[in-house]
Predict the structure.
Amino acid sequence: MKKSSLIYLAVGIILAGFVLYMVRAEKKIERTEFLMDTIVNSVIYTRNRRQGVNALSSAFGEMYRLEIILDRHHTDSEVFVLNRDAGTRPIVVSAEALDVIKKSLQVGEQTGGAFDITIAPLINLWRFGSADVYVPSENELAQTVKLVDFRRVQVNNNDGTVFLDGGGTELDLGGIAKGYIVDMAIEALLEQGITSAYLDAGGDIRVIGEKPDGSAWRIGVRHPRDRRGIIAIVELRDKAIVTSGDYERFFVVDDVRYHHIIDPKTGEPSRGIISVTVIAPDAFTADAYSTALFVLGLEKGMEIIESLPELEAIMITEDEQVHITSGLAGKVEIRQ
């Protein structure tokens, strides 16, 4: 064997040993809790176990804090107060609530109202989340749709207030609260010096960096008609991925499937799409656009998402055909 070959071999062995040492030096710390009405799973890698435990405590503490602020059903939440006093007075809200509402209104504008945080009256009408199965009448839908319009939400940046213009107007931040809370938890981990992490809040996923061995985080996208199946696999580094599907909350009456993703304009469950996955720099954006694209449908949804260079999407139609944005070509593994 030539001397140069021996040198290359030795260097390779040294590098391989170094990588193996680094991987073994990183400690895997996991934590799972139930909050935001879902299971939250977290995985971080760090050389300092105490640092990791403290970082996760900080992240979960932030999630618990924000859940109370943003959950409209919690009587101590700012959203509960906003809904209760709709049409009567502006309400001073926290910086976090103001941030979520402002960002939500921006997405509402960008999607022509396909994403609308004043959807609560329709969610209430359909009774999603309750044990009662109920299909509203056409008249009930027509009357309730009149209460849904994100332009009724007035934000005053100077005094930090929000006013819901009109009695009956109600906010439901369920379409983006989880994503926002995941983002804030990730920020807490970053502030603690964590450089490798995975956080999954009921399908709202965001990752930090990569795994200790240098590989990307491999995320499976659930098959919308096969509970145990995976229809696509995406590799992520420093990104978020969120899926909205008609299989998450639904009921069937007279062979018709009624799911929880409501079209704000018709008041009925959106048809044509059964699953939308959005990849974005943050979970809030992925969360909001996964809902909006579901409502917009394939053609309009793809048109909007292709115009946003930092976002990618996987859309699955009722015939179970998988459609991806141009930026995902060759980067996603489709299993059909």
The chain is about 35% helix and 25% strand. The CA atoms of residues 46 and 308 lie 34 Å apart.
